Amino acid sequence: MTADTSATEVVRSAPARRARWPVAVLRTARPRQWPKNLLVFAAPLAGASLGRRDGLVYALVAAAAFGFASVAVYFINDVADAERDRLHPRKRHRPVASGELPKQHAIVLGVLCALAGLSAGLLIAEPLLTATVAAYLVLSFLYSWKLKHVPVLELLFVASGFLLRVLGGAAATHVPPSGWFLLVCSLGALGVVLAKRYTELTNLGAEAIEHRPVMRWYRPAALRLSQIAVGAGMIAAYLAWAASEHPEARTWHLASALPLVAALARFALLTGRRTTVPVEDLLTRDVPMLVCEACWLGLFVAGLLKERWTDGNFPERAWLFASDPASGRHQRDRPGHRDRARPARADPGHPGRARRAAAGRGG
After folding, report:
1. Quick one: DSSP state of residue 320?
2. Do 53 and 151 share a domain, yes or no?
3. Residue 163 lies in a domain
4. Global pTM?
5. Using an 8 Å Cβ cutoff, are 48 and 321 in contact?
6. Are residues 146 and 242 in the same domain?
7. Residue 178 phi/psi, 5° resolution?
C-alpha cells in the first residue's frame, strides 16, 4: 500500500513540477527588480530630449537589453549561491535554492538571456550599448566570483550596475549626460547599496556574516554614517547640477531639491528601523516616499516644460521626442548651435551700418 502510494505521488509530482516550472523561472527572473532598467531613460529625461530620431524606440531597446542582462545575472548568481541561500531565512525559498528550478536549467536560461542582452546593441547597430551591457555582465560575474568578498570595493561594483544602465541609455539615444548628473546617479546608487548592507547587518546579525562573509568587515554605525554622508553629497551634486541649468528651468530644478531631501530623509528613517522588507520596496511602496518622489518629478518636469516653452520648441514638436540631437541642453554651447550666444546685430540707424552701406555703394 505504501509502495503504491509512493509511486502515485511520483507520477503526480512530475506534471506538478512541469506546471510549476514557468512560475519558478519567473520568480528567479525577479520581475520586481525590472523597474531598475528604467534608468536608461535618466539621461534623455535630464536632457529634455530623446536625442536621435526614434529615440524612444532606442531607449526601449536599451531597457530590454539590460533587462535580459540582469536576468542572466540573477540566474547564474542563484546557482552559485544556492548552498548559502539555503541558510538565509528569506532566500532559502528561491526556486534554485529550494530545488524547484534545476541548476542546469538556470544556467541555460542565464546564457540565453546574456546573449539576448548583448545582441540588442547589434540589432540597432549601436556598439556602445553592446559595450555597456558587456561591461555590466563582466562586472556582475566578477562580483559573484571574487569581488563580493572584498569590502568597500563590492559596494562600488554593485552601485556601478545602476550607473551602467544610465550610460547604456545615453549611448542608445545619443544624449550624453553631464558630469554632475552622472555624479548624482552614482551617489544615489551607492546610497541604496549602503542601506541594503546596513539593514541586512542589523536585522540578521551574525547570520548576515554566514550568508555574506564580507559583512564581517562592516559595522552598523559606519554604514549608517556613510549612508548619510553619501546622501548629503548627492544633494550637493544635485544642487550644483540644478544651478548650472538654463535660467528658465533653474528655479524649478533648485526647488525640486526640497522633495528630494525629504525623500532621502524618509529613506534614512525607514532603513534605520529593524525590518525584513527589501530596500527596493521602501522606495516603491511607502506612501510618504511616493509622495516625495511625485513632488520631485512634478517640479523637475515643470522646469523642463518651462525651458522648452521659453525656447519656442514646445509648440513645434512634442517634448522629449525631438529628433535633432542638438536640441539637448548639453549641446547649447557648441559652435553653430542656434541657442549659442551671438554678438548683437547693429540696428539700421547705427553709424557702423551706414558706413558699410556707403562703402558698398562706392564699390
Report:
1. T
2. yes
3. yes
4. 0.75
5. no
6. no
7. -80, 165
- DSSP letter, residue 256: T
Residue 212 lies in a domain: yes
Look at the block and give the residue holding cell 542563484: 78
Among 298, 313, 328, identify where a domain stops: 313
Burial class for 351, CB neighbours closer than 10 Å (0-12, 13-18, 19+): exposed
Which CATH number do you get for residue 164? 1.10.357.140
Q: Are residues 90 and 187 in the same domain?
A: no
Question: In terms of domains, do 37 and 170 share one?
Answer: yes
Give the containing element (helix H, strand E) for 85.
helix 82-85
Question: What span, in angstroms and rounded, lies between the C-alpha atoms of 226 and 106?
Answer: 36
Among residues 261, 271, 263, 267, the alpha carbon closest in space to that of 238 is found at 261
Residues 167 and 186 in one domain: no
Domain that holds residue 196: 178-313
Report how many domains make up the chain.
2
Mark which of 275, 292, 313 sits at the end of a domain. 313
Q: What is the pLDDT along the chain (363 residues), one digit of tens a residue?
A: 444 444 434 434 656 666 788 999 999 999 988 988 999 998 888 776 666 777 789 999 999 999 999 999 999 989 988 888 787 777 888 899 888 999 999 999 999 999 999 999 999 999 999 999 999 999 999 988 888 889 999 999 999 999 999 999 999 988 888 889 899 999 999 999 999 999 988 887 777 887 788 899 999 999 999 999 999 999 999 999 999 888 888 899 999 999 999 999 999 999 988 777 778 778 888 899 999 999 999 999 898 888 777 655 544 334 444 444 444 444 444 344 444 444 444 445 544 444 444 444 454
Pull the grid cell for residue 309: 516653452
Contact assessment for residue 25 and residue 112, using Cβ atoms and an 8 Å cutoff:
no
Please tell me the distance from the alpha carbon of residue 352 to that of residue 363, in angstroms, as a whole number: 17
